[in-house]
Please model this.
Amino acid sequence: MHKKANLKYLFLLLLMPFLNACGISSISDKDICSVAMTQDRLNFIWETNERLVSYVDEAKRRNLGLGDCIRHSGRVKLVQDRPIDEAQVVSLSDRRLCSYVISKNGGLPFWKSWSPFLPYVSEAKRRGLTIDICMKHNGWTESLILK
Model:
């Protein structure tokens, strides 16, 4: 895994001058998502590398959740092929759980209904989390959602 992560960073270091010259707002959702997320064991998470956080911010500004980025990057098949560990789902923090369970359509947030996310949605609802609460955990504001 470290070798794969190191290759990603090497590729990004070579690509960064080009991406920055284009202006981050002109980069496609797919490319933003490819840079903005990484993998932590079996889960996709937002990138925390300080050189890449601006891409996470841009993804969130565009109202792209992790699920959206997984689909844009073509990684959804990898997520679907992995068995869901229910103990792992239950152990997630509310913030992490919320990153998996909501998406948007036309600016309106909704619970995800794709099969790989259903255990996460069920757990979020069991905890009493709402779409509004998850929007806040994901850093989405009402003004961003209603664009």
